[in-house]
């Protein structure tokens, strides 16, 4: 059930059999959600964290004028709100972009893990640091990258993150997002997103069609994005 989560953890550190058992035993209720549902709301007291098993989640904030900014996408294997363990509430909402299956882990169980397994404490601390690194990269995109580089960077990042958990087929992967949802990730209008997708396709770098990203020239895509995967901390090392 949580194999993709374990794949993500093992990609960057080793886990003992005892640690894997501790994680599995801490998993609580499994829930299925339809697409387009806000499953965690800002400023609501939380007593559990949510692990994404299948589907795609977004963290987002809405402005008074109705505009929305997505601040991160979560793929299977990610905790969407591990930081709520210490914060106890979020300053943003979390929504399903596709039909999703999630598992919960109570904060009581997380507390037990951190007290009984110091290495897992560091592993999960690293996970929240990784989320922060992804946030910083998205901030650079929104603040300084051109529209085409933003899109190329997003496609490059997701190719890596989905590959870690076994959800790519070569240089192709599912991404069931609308152009509106892409615009909310990239800080662009839907019209601009359409134009950027056309430019990337005409350059022979990547094509996005019917919910699938098909990368035709990965080195070119990375050059357009100025993509450096260092912020994803892909090396496996003891924490």
Automatic annotation (TrEMBL):
State the organism of origin. Sphingomonas desiccabilis
Q: Which GO terms describe its biological process?
A: regulation of DNA-templated transcription
Q: Which PROSITE patterns match?
A: HTH_CRP_2
Protein name as catalogued: Crp/Fnr family transcriptional regulator
Q: Which CDD domains match?
A: CAP_ED
Read off the lineage from the record: Bacteria, Pseudomonadati, Pseudomonadota, Alphaproteobacteria, Sphingomonadales
Gene3D superfamilies noted in UniProt: Jelly Rolls, Winged helix-like DNA-binding domain superfamily/Winged helix DNA-binding domain
Keywords, sorted A to Z = DNA-binding, Transcription, Transcription regulation
HTH crp-type domain location is 145-219
Q: Name one GO molecular function term.
A: DNA binding
